[in-house]
Amino acid sequence: MVTKATLLKMDPDIRAFTLVGAFMGYFAVLELGVNEALSKVLGLEVAASVVVSRNMSFDDKLKTLRALVSRFTISESKAKEFDELVKRARKCGEIRNTIAHSPFRRSEKTDGVEVFVVSANSSLKFIEMDWSVDRFLGQIDEINTIDNELRAIEKTVAMHRIGEALLNLGERESADGEQVGGLLTLGKLIMEGEI
Questions:
Q1: Does residue 167 form part of some domain?
Q2: How many domains does the chain have?
Q3: Among candidates 137, 143, 144, which has minimal Cα distance to 6?
Q4: Could you name the domain of life of the organism this protein comes from (predicted)?
Q5: Counting Cβ atoms within 10 Å, is residue 98 exposed (0-12), middle (13-18) or buried (19+)?
Q6: Structure pTM?
């Protein structure tokens, strides 16, 4: 864990690179959690999961997961809770893109990092971004909180799929061609890796 005390002992140039690296690393863990949630909700095996998640932007992953969560979640309140998490995760993604694609250096104003952000959408703008150690650590905490909350919702979705399997009587055939359902369907889905 990156601590403020450890960071403040560092040379300011090394501290700047450490802060940016820590931010990027923790964001990568968040994205991995989104990949895992997407994989679990879709019931993908490892190879398929890697292909799907590797070829989607972070924002596309969130949009897809949002649609799936709304489909596979029993509770409307859980779906709304997930939507709020998506908004927070998207904001982290925007910040990540800004930091990843902008030059930076140690700050002359704070104990953190000055990032040279340029916007050139309709007009050229130089946007001031100077984050202190506390601001970086706060953003890392936000990333970790979102990751943990997304993983909790992922479990809810998985439980909903188990509930659906229990309710879908007679939708599967056993090896001898007989209709099975309830716990037998649940067991079959678990054995097939679908849950």
A1: no
A2: 1
A3: 137
A4: Bacteria
A5: middle
A6: 0.78
Instruction: Give the span between the Cα atoms of 9 and 27, in whole angstroms.
Output: 24
pLDDT in tens, 122-164: 999 999 999 999 999 999 999 999 999 887 776 666 555 555 5
Domain annotation covers residue 36: yes
Question: Has residue 175 been placed in a domain?
Answer: no
DSSP string across 117-168: EEE-SSS-EEEEEEE-HHHHHHHHHHHHHHHHHHHHHHHHHHHHHHHHHHH-
pLDDT band at 169 (very low <50, low <70, confident <90, very high): very low
Measured over the CA atoms of residue 187, residue 189, residue 191 and residue 195, the dihedral's sign is negative
Whether residue 132 is contained in a domain is answered as yes
- Which domain does 88 fall in, by range? 4-157
